[in-house]
Structure formats: C-alpha cells, structure tokens
Amino acid sequence: MMIKLQAKDIVFGYTSNRILENVNFEIAPSKLVTIVGPNGSGKSTLIKCIDRIAAPQGGSILIDRKDVTKMSRMDMAKYLSYVPQSSVRIFPTNVFDTILMGRRPHIGWLGSDKDEKKVWEVLRLLDIEKLAMSNFGELSGGQQQKVLIARALVQEAEVMLLDEPTSNLDIWHQLDVMNIIRDVVKKKEITAIMALHDLNLASYYSDRIIMMKKGKIVAAGDPYSVITEENIASVYRVEAAVRSLSDRPVIMPLRQIREARA
Amino acid sequence: MTSFRTLFFRGKPDASQTRSRRAGKKSNPEIAHERFKFIRIFFVLGIVALLALLTGIIITLGPLNISVTDSYSALLARFWPDYFTVDALTSRVVWNIRFPRILGGIMAGFGLGICGCVMQAVLKNPLASPFTLGITSGAQFGISVAAVIGFSILGGPYFIIGNAFFCALLCSFFIIGLAAIKGATSENLVLAGIAVNYFFSAMSQLLKYFATDDQLRLMTNWGMGDLAAFSWTNSQLLLIIFLICIPLLMTKCWDLNIMTAGDETAKSIGVNAERTRIFIMVVSSLLVATIVCFMGPIAFVGLVAPHMARMVIGGDHRFLILASGVLGGLVLMSADAIGMNLIAPTIIPTGIMTSIVGVPFFMYLMMKGKRKEFWT
To answer: In CATH, which of 3.40.50.300, 2.60.40.10, 3.40.630.30, 3.40.50.2000 is domain A1-79+157-235?
Structure first.
C-alpha cells in the first residue's frame, strides 16, 4: 500500500498529564481521513502536533518518507497546510489578501502575478470570487471557513489538516464545507486529515476514520469498522443505535451510560 | 493591460462575469482588485508629493520673508547650482535654520510611524505604539541619572543623549528578554512592558525627588519632546540607523501580514512567529531609541499614523509600512510648523503640539469612517 503520511510515536503533554501517548498511524494518498473522539481525547492536539503548531515531545511525521519534523517551518509549509477552527482578525483584511497569505512559502519579496493568479483560481474553484474584495471579518461563519480552506489550498501542500471545520455552522453550511473538502481531495488529489465532532458527517464523508480516547487511538479503518455501537459505548459512554443509510453507517444516540456507583 | 478608465470607472456590477472571463476579459472582482492596487500605489506617491509640497511651504514660515519658489530654489541649488540660483542669506536661513528642523520632523515622524505600524502588527494590538516597550521610561531614567547623579556612559556633547539612548535600549531589551524566557507571545511582551515601564518610571521619580530646580527643569524639558536639538550631525547618525533598520523591517512585510492573523496561522504558513516578533522588536527599539534620545518622547504619531494609513490602503504591509512612515512625517512636520508659528516668537514644543493638532484630526477621521472599527 502506498503511504502518504506516517505518524510515528507522537507524544505530547506533561509528565503528570499526557495528552497524546505514542500515537501511530499511516494514511494513503488522496484520502479524506477524519479523527473523532470525545472532548479532551486529543484529536485537535494531534492535528496541531502534525503541523508543529504544538511542538510534540517525541515522535516524527513522515510525508512521502521525508521527515517533516526536521525541516524548517517554511519548508514544512510546502508539504502541510492547516485550516484553523476560526480566525479572528485584529486589523481588517480583505478576502484576497487573506488567501494570498497562503502563498508565503512560495512567494518572493514583492509577490508576483503568478501568485495572484493562483488566488483567483482557488476563489473560482470554491465559487467565492465575488467575495474577493470583502472584509474577512464581515463574512458569515460559512464564508469565513471557505476562505480559510482557500488559503490552505493556495499553499499547494499535498496534505491538508483541518481542525473542526464545521463547528459553529448550521447544517446547510456544514454540508457545503464538507462537500468542498471532498471535492478538493478528489480534484487536487490531496490528502485531508480533519478533527471532527459530528460522527454522522465523519461517517458520510470519510474514506477512513481514526477514533481516539484519552490520547490513544482505539479504532481506525473504514466507517463501518469504526462507527459501531460497541466503540461508541466504550469511547463516548453513550448507548447508540447504528444503522445503514446510503451505504454508510448512521448513528442515533439514545442515552448516556452512567458509571455504576460503588 | 487594464486601462485607466476601466480601473477608475465605478460602473454597476456586470451580470455577465462568466461570459467575460471566457472572452479573456477580467471579471468585476478582478477589476476591483486592480483598482485597489492602483489606489494603494497612488496614495503612497500622493502623500510623498504632499510631503514635498508642504516642505516648501513650511520653509517660508518665519521672520525672514521667503517665497515658496525661493525655498525650493534654495533646496535644489545645493544639488544643481547651474540651474537654480538664490541669494546667500536665503540659502543660509533655509539650509542652516529652517530645513534641518523640518527634516528632523520628517525623519522622526517617519521612524515613529514605521515602528508603530510593525509593533501593532507583531503585538496584534491596535493600541501598541513605539513606546509600548518602555523606551520613554528607559530614556527618562537615563536623563535623570545624567542630570541628578552626573554619570553618563558617553561624554562631551553626548553626555545626556548617550545615557538616554543606552537606558532606552536597556529597558526595551530587558522587556524583550523577559518575554523571550517566558515565550515571546504578544501578551507576555505587553505585560512585561507595562511592569518594566513602571519600574523605570519609579526610578526616575526617585531621582527627581532628590533633584535641584535646574535638574528638574532639564528633565521636564526633555520630557516634552522637541525638534530643537536636531542638527545636521544628528541627521547623519539618524540616517545610518534608518538605512540599517528600515530595510530590515521591510524584508518582513509578508510575515507581518500573516502575523496579524495570529501565531497559529503564522506557524502553519511557515513563519516562526516568536522569532519574528523578537526580531521586529529589537530592530524597532534601536530605531525608536535613536529618535527619542535626540528629540524626546513625541507621542501620538507612532500610534495613529498606521491607523490613518490603514483607513485608506488596508492592512498590506508592503504598502502600509511606507505609508505609515510618510504620514508620520507629515503629521509631525505640520504639527511642529504650527507650534513654531502659532504664538511666535514663543515655540510650543513638538511633543505637545503633535497631540493638540493630531487628536482632533484623528477624531474627525474616526467619526467620518464608514465602518465600526476605527482603524479601517
């Protein structure tokens, strides 16, 4: 099997509070992989450790067998892009300039027409060209998320990391953003790894799912092998019914599982 | 090539955007973007032209009557004596008295405007100014030590100025060092800045408590900020520091754009946020300390010049750094000219006049702005 990204023994946290403990996984090229797990399971931290936004205490990340953890930040940004959950701007910036930031790893001192052309291409690809001169801070949550994805796309990295891209969005915009991510994975042949809370979205859109609990991977594979009633009961402490719909598992949470009192 | 007419004609949005693109024409957002790029360039060139125009006009203000034509002739005759002629008295007054002070104002305003711009970006704080890192309290402490104790690092003409310079740098490097140990986040820098500011201010107050009336007067006069101390010798020293620091700051224009989006974003796009922040702070401190030791603390310019520039050309530091500098020079030069001539022959110190003239002007721009944020 071809391997695009390989995480080896990722460790993060403090001696008294380990957030990630020896996390290992491998991801094939052009796949959409989702990391799921309850609050505090370490899924967002894992995304940040892969991109060295949070510096892991141990382990390595290999992309096409090259160790990106030993590269400079600028070189690493050519392999990995990152879409944050949200972005607050202290000073107003228009959408075009916000996306142009993503060209930094490739850009010269003054920038070139080529970089601007790349921005226009991505604006058209995501159908947000008309927002180009709008102030980023005045956009809706869904539009802002599209702009952040566009910024990651102009970075032209082969692996895109996304930290809960659908949080704070209504269901229409959740589907809109997820469809965009699925489309760019296919069209641009990139690998996307995202942390996600919504198990049904993860199940519907992902090629592979990684389920985490307390900083460790407890299950990984295709949606049917990970989204099971047993896994949801042991990881989330929730009794749920899992059914099949449109060739994907769909879950309906039923009730919380309370710890037995001593 | 987009024509001038297309760039500046604001027509109604065209519904046939896609059709236009197929025909090889630019879409409406692309035309709007091209127009905005031209506006940024024209704005920077426009304020440079305004600076040159005002220089010629301000030179005419004073006891000796000099026409605007004569003032430009006197300036240009130094470089092209075959083409421009002016009488010796006018030339001496322009070159030895009036122009050095104007040049001092432009250089100080330029430096303070640029430092305010880059500091606001790396500290992600619209209230940051060149004095956030305690330069003023450090320099004030240096002046107090020289005046009250009689100790100075340098002797001769730099007895007081030398102390102001080194203590200003000591204070800001102490703050940067503290923040670097704890992690050079914008919050740590601002907090360390406030704490160390108080410490150096308290030390100055302590020395003031033991000072004589003459020593107190010296300290108070310096604290007002004035261009009177500026001379051709100082301008050469200032120019050297400018030629080192400003290109260094300009090389970071892309990183500054990205850092305003937060450290997390900066790191993911390849910018080492903490290292860049320290670099900008060290270079800015050197620049501001040099200006402050000669002219005293001239507040307000470094705070508002970047906001004024952002109101017109947005937040792209490729243009914003230079525009903030030129606007800083314009504000400081104009305020000083008013201060010199308002109740002549009494000269109101530049630091006082900058705030008196600048604040109402800035309030006007703030109220006139369409958007809610005052810096847009």
So the answer is: 3.40.50.300
